[in-house]
């Protein structure tokens, strides 16, 4: 994808830059200074954690907005598809787990780790202000 500024044009391969497993960037949008990346998941199946059947029947997909590490000094939000599969054997609905984020969180694990590391050398208030949190 191409990022254009008044002074330069830059080609960025967001898939390589993000380095997240089993995802690809399908859309890019920059609003003010914030980058939004819409992701698609590359795997088509998951394993049922109860009966270990391979599931390929998606019941629903919802997109969550998730904070990630900044790119070129710009805050980044990922539009992450959260898929729910239906297991015919168990008759249960299974939410897909993603290795780069915890369930019901609105930030990636690596973003959380970066915040923890920065707080060690600063104050919570300072980091919160710099990151635009709460």
Task: Give a nutshell description of this structure.
The chain is an alpha+beta fold and about 130 residues long. The mean pLDDT is about 90.
What oligomeric state is this?
Answer: single chain
The percent range for strand residues is 35-45%
Taking the sheet with the most strands, its summary is: 5 strands, mixed
Number of helical segments with 4 or more residues: 3
Distance between the termini: 31 Å
What is the strand tally?
9
Series of secondary-structure elements, N-terminal to C-terminal? EEHEEEEEEEHH
* Mean of pLDDT: 90
Question: How much helix, percentage-wise, in residues?
Answer: 10-25%
How many independent structural domains? 1
InterPro entries: Transposase_Znf
Protein name: Transposase
Task: Give the helices and strands, then pairings.
Elements lengths: L1 E3 L4 E3 L2 H5 L4 E9 L2 E8 L4 E2 L6 E2 L2 E14 L2 E14 L4 E4 L13 H12 L3 H8 L3
Parallel strand pairs: 4-8
Antiparallel strand pairs: 1-2, 3-4, 5-6, 7-8, 8-9
Tell me what you see in this structure.
With 134 residues, the protein is an alpha+beta fold. The chain has one domain (2-131). 19% of the residues lie in helices and 44% in strands. The chain contains 3 helices and 9 strands. It has helices at 14-18, 109-120, 124-131, and strands spanning 2-4, 9-11, 23-31, 34-41, 46-47, 54-55, 58-71, 74-87, 92-95. The strands form 3 sheets. Strands 3, 4, 7, 8 and 9 form a 5-stranded mixed sheet that branches. It has a two-stranded antiparallel ribbon with strand order 1-2. A hairpin with a 4-residue loop joins strand 1 and strand 2 (9-11). The model has no long low-confidence stretch (mean pLDDT 90).
């Amino acid at each position: 994808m191409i990022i254009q500024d008044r002074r330069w044009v830059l080609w960025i391969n967001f898939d390589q830059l993000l380095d997240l497993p089993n995802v690809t960037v399908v859309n890019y949008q920059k609003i003010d200074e914030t980058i939004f990346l819409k992701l698609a998941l590359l795997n088509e199946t998951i394993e049922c954690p109860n009966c270990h059947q391979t599931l390929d029947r998606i019941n629903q997909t919802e997109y969550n907005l998730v904070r990630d590490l900044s790119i070129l000094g710009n805050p980044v939000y990922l539009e992450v598809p959260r898929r729910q599969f239906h297991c015919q054997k168990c008759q249960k609905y299974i939410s897909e787990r993603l290795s780069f984020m915890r369930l019901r969180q609105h930030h990636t694990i690596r973003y959380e780790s970066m915040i923890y590391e920065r707080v060690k050398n600063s104050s919570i208030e300072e980091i919160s202000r710099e990151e635009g949190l709460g």
